[in-house]
Amino acid sequence: MTSRLSHHSFILVCLLSVITLYSCSSRKHAAISNTKAAGIAEAMSHLKSKKLYRFITDWTGVRYRLGGLDKSGIDCSGFALLLQKDIYGFSLPRRSRDQADAVNERKVSQLKEGDLIFFSFGGGAVDHVGVYLDNDYFVHASTSKGVIVDDLRLPVYQKAIVKAGSLKN
Length: 169
Fold this sequence. Notes:
Layout: H1 2-22, H2 27-45, H3 50-59, E1 69-70, E2 73-74, H4 76-88, H5 96-100, E3 103-105, E4 116-119, E5 128-134, E6 137-142, E7 146-151, H6 155-158, E8 161-167
Antiparallel strand pairs: 1-2, 3-8, 4-5, 4-8, 5-6, 6-7
Helix pairs in contact: 1-2
């Protein structure tokens, strides 16, 4: 147990250090980056499923590739599909807009670990999906940053959320 806890703490410290090192030299930007890193670390540390924690850390940084389904590149719906299958044993359709039809809708404030969040950045139809973690953080395959944990409270995401919920049984 102590070994696991030490390993868990080591990973969180490494995550914070890496994010801090990549931040700009600007104090304002560094403060924002450190705050974001702390939020991500806290959300990850509160995950109930250690298997989910390992899955996310294993995939973090994998680049985005439309239609991708492996470590050489993955898209958002492929990432959600693999995560739901590997962690929860659930099958999902391949496309994010079809995945949105497979959930029982609930309010964002009622989301639980593993629930899906759907976005429309192009206006109208669902065109992006992420997986809710904890404390308003979610994991997704970003077109610009690859697989990352991100803050759902950011205005870009708040404006684009169109549906969220848990998978239908």
